[in-house]
Write a structure and sequence with these properties.
By secondary structure, the chain is mostly beta strands. It folds into three domains: 196 residues, no CATH class; 70 residues; 89 residues. The chain is built from five helices and 26 strands. The strands form seven sheets. Strands 3, 4, 15, 16, 19 and 20 form a six-stranded mixed β-sheet that branches. A hairpin with a 7-residue loop joins strand 25 and strand 26. The radius of gyration is 25 Å and the shape is elongated.
């Protein structure tokens, strides 16, 4: 773009994403203190270069697009973009910076209480005792303690609740609640407001320097905790975009490598085939995604009486200091009650993993312990 009458002072560069239901656009900051250059200036490659990326799956008759889910662009050890896949295969931005800074979903957050009957009523055993939860003076739950005198109650909103034992001659007991993890599903998630776009722009060069970027796909929106985990070690979870560097030497993405491929059209009639064919002469970068069957996964029968939303399975390799967790809150149950927990593909040097399980040892305290389910499992046995 060419701008007239710019003052000779540093400018901040953004990507501006129009929104569908608000006048303010989503602003994605790229760089600060950039100096304008004369419009007559010529360069083989400009100091600031953005590359459009189209994530694609390998289908039966060619490439297809993901039908649903979320993509995350990690740049400078920060999740820079959260993009939701729309029903037609387009990509709609979430104003992630707004959500993380202003916490607008706080009104949607729920809390839970860990009831420890042995501490609340220390004089005698109250296992299987009926109890009630009162929130702001209103009864919101009734149930029975477990044999170990504990219980966990979710979907609360107040920071304190009263626990009442209707068959015991004792006063109501005030107990503090804790913030609950988000569960899989649509309730309480960040909302995508960006106008749907046919591809995802990522920074390739900024101020003359090639950038280190990653893209991660998730079937469900990541929680704040999962966003932080992704930022702490993107290389172990997400796909590197380092192969974009071939653009500087060839001005195309032919023969780029394993992750970056050219968008050359498709004979498939699957999701997004029309979008792919529209881009086949556009010289944009394709991002090759592993089919779901090519990612390690565990199918697990949900146990509603014992499983908690912050329980997880993990794949771990101690020798190479690698672990990836898949939380129950981020998996949805199928019609038979099973959850499919998917994991990032481990580094190339990791051939075998331990399957570990994070499980609550006490509902009354919310404490969690790590259990080794199986040791030295070949990654190949977890595929498909």
């Amino acid at each position: 773009a060419t701008f007239k009458d710019l003052e000779a002072e540093g400018k901040t560069l953004y990507i501006k994403i129009p929104c569908s239901d608000q006048p303010q656009p989503i602003l994605l900051k790229l760089a600060e203190d950039l100096q304008p250059v004369d419009k007559e200036t010529q360069m083989d490659e400009w100091d600031n270069v953005l590359v459009p990326v189209l994530p694609m799956l390998e289908g039966t008759n060619g490439h297809e697009l993901i039908a649903e889910g979320y993509f995350y662009v990690i740049w400078n050890n920060k999740v820079w973009r959260e993009v939701e896949v729309t029903t037609k295969g387009y990509f709609a931005d979430v104003d992630l910076e707004y959500y993380r800074n202003n916490d607008p979903e706080s009104s949607m957050k729920t809390r839970h209480v860990n009831i420890d009957g042995a501490n609340l009523v220390p004089d005698y055993y109250i296992g299987e005792e009926p109890f009630e939860i009162y929130q702001s003076g209103q009864k919101v739950y009734s149930g029975h303690l477990s044999l170990d005198q504990g219980a966990r109650v979710f979907r609360l909103v107040d920071e304190e609740v009263d626990v009442v034992f209707p068959e015991l001659d004792i006063d109501p007991i005030t107990v503090k609640t804790a913030l609950s993890p988000y569960k899989a599903g649509k309730d309480g998630l960040r909302i995508a407001q960006g106008v749907p776009l046919p591809h995802i722009w990522v920074p390739y060069k900024v101020a003359g320097e090639v950038q280190e970027c990653y893209i991660h796909y998730s079937e469900l929106a990541l929680t704040n905790t999962e966003l932080s985990e992704l930022e702490s070690d993107p290389a172990s979870i997400a796909k590197s975009l380092s192969e974009l560097q071939i653009y500087s030497s060839s001005q195309s993405f032919d023969n780029a490598g394993e992750n970056i491929i050219p968008v050359s059209g498709t004979a498939s009639t699957g999701t997004g085939s029309g979008i792919i064919n529209e881009h086949k002469e556009s010289n944009i970068a394709g991002l090759k995604l592993a089919p779901r069957g090519a990612l390690p996964s565990i199918r697990y029968l949900h146990e509603p009486l014992t499983d908690q939303p912050d329980d997880f399975f993990g794949l771990r390799n101690i020798e190479h200091d690698w672990i990836h967790k898949s939380y129950f809150r981020s998996a949805m149950k199928d019609d038979d009650g099973y959850m499919t927990l998917r994991f990032a593909f481990p580094p190339e040097e990791v051939k075998n993993v331990d399957i570990v399980r994070g499980v609550h040892s006490s509902l009354s305290t919310g404490s969690q312990r790590l259990v080794v389910v199986e040791e030295n499992v070949p990654i190949s046995e977890l595929l498909g």
